[in-house]
Amino acid sequence: MARAAIAAALPGQGAVAEAMGYACEGGKGLRALLVVESARLHGLEGKAGPVAGAIEALHAYSLVHDDLPCMDDDDLRRGRPTVHRKWDEATAVLAGDALQSLAFGLVAGADLPAGARIALVQSLSEAAGVAGMVGGQAADIAAETAQMPLTLPEIEALQAGKTGALITWSALAGPRMAGKESADLRHYGDAVGRAFQIFDDILDVEGSAEAVGKAVGKDAARGKATFVSLLGLEPARERAEALVAEAIAALEPWGQEAETLRELARFVIARRS
Amino acid sequence: MARAAIAAALPGQGAVAEAMGYACEGGKGLRALLVVESARLHGLEGKAGPVAGAIEALHAYSLVHDDLPCMDDDDLRRGRPTVHRKWDEATAVLAGDALQSLAFGLVAGADLPAGARIALVQSLSEAAGVAGMVGGQAADIAAETAQMPLTLPEIEALQAGKTGALITWSALAGPRMAGKESADLRHYGDAVGRAFQIFDDILDVEGSAEAVGKAVGKDAARGKATFVSLLGLEPARERAEALVAEAIAALEPWGQEAETLRELARFVIARRS
């Protein structure tokens, strides 16, 4: 559903348009699923397509830019060459830029009341911007450049921006589509986002590049402080499990309808990529 | 007014936030002025601040990314070092990214009916994305990489995206803020955008780097086809003048209220930078 919304919005030709489509392929689609399931709790799953497409487009843009030589300098993503390796850096910068534009256009074009669309656009701008995702990525790069290992609270703050902001936004998409807010779903999204990032650190230590679909062992090679390097593998895993339990508990008021959201929370620490 | 809206939205610290502010300084503010004056025609100039700020933030993002080594590789912009020269490439990529997020947030947060804000967000997404500005920049880079000199109609199509889309969006901001469309202002914006780009080509030949605030003589050095190289200096100037006359004529129904818009059209081919 997310992919269809993205494909329908892309023009047919040109390297940048091709690269945009390529960058949106092959992911787990976790954020899109969170949007659809969060929308389902409000009876709005049928209208979630463009919103789910938007968050996947925005996520894809962030990966394309994060992989650039001047950022994390990665050659492999989702098991395939990164966009700047398959095309070139200019195409990667432009494809990422246009994916971000597309994301806001998709949200704004959703079949929802204008007020709900505005709330989604405003919150997406905050989650994506310097106070959210970009701020987290900037802090990550700054810490690495300064070769300054971070403390646990600093890592948590950084990851809340870098990964957490978009995951929380996805979990809150449903209530926002319905013109509401939800403390439960915010709690759920925050906990899932934190568990997700801790498990990413675990995969970087335990996973194989083939299974994970991107380079592994990078954190240790760079001497980067992570949950695993600071806590150890098992305590990090326990922390991720506790966060998943917390996320599931937050869904208690939602009953059986939220079962897929519970499964998604469990998946976050059971995935191989 | 545009600058105040941007400044109010930025967090206080960090290289990326600093670079975002830096990138928004020192420009002519042509697009912001177009927004304010277009809003004035609909009695909405008092509410134009965030919309004007948005277009300047979006424009600034495009300059920061266009200046990157993998794109136009420029050291000088608005008479000062480009963002990646003053900071580094990662900061430039991230500052541009966050300025784009900010732009959509500013439009979405304007004090206007939700329907008008949605129309502004949707049209901004189109103007900024792969069918607009990014598409134009991609075509520009593709032509240069292929060392394929473009024809006049190809240059016009490219510039309609690269520069024209945001200028036309600015001219149409007023009617959209009022929940309307305007064929006159679209005509005006298209003609101003085309005149602007032709005059940019002229400045690249005639201007000094000191006055223009960025490197000049680049087009000829790169063997790039422009209005000047294809038509000659004087015919290019005549064409720009004809477009300005066309823009001014399109404002005829708007009477005295549109005088500043007429002046802005004249300024486009009288500026030194």
Oligomeric state of the chains present here: homodimer
Please state the structural category of chain A: mainly alpha
Most extensive contact: A-B, 49 and 49 residues
CATH fold annotation of chain A: Farnesyl Diphosphate Synthase
Radius of gyration of chain A: 18 Å
Number of separate helices of chain A: 15
Low-confidence stretches of chain A: none
CATH architecture annotation of chain A: Orthogonal Bundle
CATH class of chain A: Mainly Alpha
> Percent of residues of chain A in helical segments?
55-70%
The gross shape of chain A turns out to be globular
**Strand ordering within the main sheet of chain A:** 1-2
The total tally of domains of chain A equals: 1
CA-CA gap between termini of chain A: 22 Å
Relevant CATH superfamily of chain A: Farnesyl Diphosphate Synthase
Mean pLDDT of chain A: 92
SSE topology string of chain A:
HHHHEEHHHHHHHHHHH
Task: Give the strand tally of chain A.
Answer: 2
